[in-house]
């Protein structure tokens, strides 16, 4: 008899689970339930859509239901899983189109329920033109406002990745953009101040009005439409407000059944098992084991969900998996107008939050030998490294330049995942060609600088 696998959620974790199941097993039947109407929008591609850099909004997705024509795969959108009965090994599912509820049995249940964007708990959230920066429906609404000439002022709440993407798309659409955040600098939870200072100045040069340390008290307006964002720093005129103030796990429906921590993240063990037998949890609704921090931390990334799904399915039918999940580094990248950065592992903010002691080093140079002028492709490059002050084990790093050096972030990720030391990075054997880099590669030089070595000649 075929083993019945139920998957909750059609984003990265759910998609990868189907791919892995089909690749590894034959006698299985797969059903994926997705509460949303659209399967499955890639919110990380929203900026490209808003800037008219995609073929079509309906193509900004991981997969379509028809991507899996196999008879043993069933993908049902508009179907919300509302309850788990672990004793009977069933889930209760509501068809959101007709309200009909069914009870479906499983042999294995994979939870990849993801996260929901946060709305500020303030008055005025119900006003028209107050939007969230996530999902297909919000993407199309925001796009219509960017194309509307009557919309002049757009206020973005939250200066993380999503808020920066929203601000850039709005500036390119010709709007006046105000960027607000409660912390002291844009991207402050992702990058240290040496790098955020550069980015903040660049945002201002591009016309983004930045206000930090802002405490928002309400959204206000007339005729049910937003007109102002009210705060401790005054009222900001706003024809549209885009909230990008973080996410929260989509786990309210699991309370009292699946073990959750105090913030609502699903608790899973080193094998990604929940407290319920044959029920597993992956992706953004869980905490991921960080190789750098050596503990579980919140890392909401597609790459994390896919790696967890690959591991989980590989060991799904083992009574006790042969090995625990190895963990993740947590790497990401972003373009901010003319600048590009990538970061991996820990930084000062995340290390402090995780209780990890770090040492750090900031390195500034040019990409290529100094005899190449800047206007011939030799821009400034910046590297921040984080490492254990006693063992010199690499714990994190970031790179930034107007030249796209984000691939260096992958080098850092590999070094961190293999627990290399600063000394290893200082001596790593990379290529040299003056059309691309220096006699010692950028990360070699940054590591040598971190070790306090005499500076390599710039000639």
Description:
There is one protein chain. With 459 residues, the chain is of the alpha/beta class. Strands 3-2-1-7-18 form a 5-stranded parallel sheet, covered by helices on one side. A 5-stranded parallel sheet has the order 9-16-10-11-12. It contains 10 helices and 25 strands. The protein is globular.
Strand content: 25-35%
Distance between the termini: 71 Å
Low-confidence stretches: none
Count of runs of 4 or more consecutive helical residues = 10
> Total strand count, please?
25
C-alpha Rg (nearest Å): 24 Å
Structural class: alpha/beta
Strand order of the largest sheet: 3-2-1-7-18
Mean pLDDT comes to: 96
Helix content: 10-25%
Form type:
globular
Please describe the biggest sheet, giving its number of strands, its sense, and whether it closes into a barrel.
5 strands, parallel
């Amino acid at each position: 008899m075929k083993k019945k696998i139920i998957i909750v959620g059609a984003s990265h974790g759910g998609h990868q689970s189907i791919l892995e199941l089909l690749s590894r097993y034959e006698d299985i039947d797969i059903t994926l339930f997705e509460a949303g109407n659209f399967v499955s929008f890639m919110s990380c591609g929203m900026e490209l859509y808003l800037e008219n850099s995609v073929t079509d909004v309906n193509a900004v997705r991981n997969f379509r239901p028809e991507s899996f024509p196999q008879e043993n795969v069933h993908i049902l959108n508009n179907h919300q899983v509302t309850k788990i009965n672990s004793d009977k090994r069933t889930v209760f599912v509501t068809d959101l189109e007709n309200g009909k509820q069914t009870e479906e049995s499983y042999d294995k249940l994979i939870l990849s329920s993801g996260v929901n964007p946060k709305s500020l708990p303030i008055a005025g959230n119900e006003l028209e033109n107050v939007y969230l920066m996530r999902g297909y429906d919000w993407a199309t609404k925001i796009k219509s406002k960017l194309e509307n000439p009557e919309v002049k002022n757009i206020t973005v709440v939250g200066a993380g990745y999503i808020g920066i993407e929203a601000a850039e798309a709005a500036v390119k659409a010709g709007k006046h953009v105000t960027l607000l955040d409660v912390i002291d600098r844009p991207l402050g939870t992702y990058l240290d101040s040496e790098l955020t200072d550069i980015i903040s100045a660049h945002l201002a040069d591009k016309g983004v009005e930045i206000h930090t340390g802002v405490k928002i008290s309400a959204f206000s307006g007339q005729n049910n439409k937003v007109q102002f964002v009210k705060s401790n720093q005054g009222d900001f005129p706003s024809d549209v407000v885009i909230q990008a103030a973080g996410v929260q796990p989509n786990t309210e429906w699991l309370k009292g059944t699946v073990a959750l921590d105090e913030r609502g993240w699903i608790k899973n063990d080193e094998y990604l098992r929940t407290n319920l037998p044959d029920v597993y949890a992956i992706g953004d609704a869980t905490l991921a084991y960080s190789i750098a921090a050596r503990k579980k931390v919140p890392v909401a990334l597609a790459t994390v969900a896919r790696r967890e799904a690959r591991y989980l399915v590989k060991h799904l039918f083992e009574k006790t998996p042969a090995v625990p999940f190895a963990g993740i580094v947590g790497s990401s990248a972003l373009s901010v107008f003319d600048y590009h950065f990538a970061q991996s592992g820990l930084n000062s903010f995340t290390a402090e939050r995780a209780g990890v002691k770090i040492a750090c080093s900031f390195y500034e140079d040019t990409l290529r030998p100094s005899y190449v002028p800047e206007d011939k492709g030799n821009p400034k490059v910046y590297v921040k490294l984080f490492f254990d002050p006693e063992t010199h084990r690499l714990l994190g790093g970031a790179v930034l330049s107007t030249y796209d050096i984000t691939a260096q972030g992958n080098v850092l990720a590999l070094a961190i995942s293999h627990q290399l030391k600063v000394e290893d990075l200082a001596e790593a054997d990379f290529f040299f060609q003056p059309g691309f880099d220096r006699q010692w590669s950028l990360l070699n030089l940054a590591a040598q600088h971190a070790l306090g070595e005499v500076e390599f000649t710039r000639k």
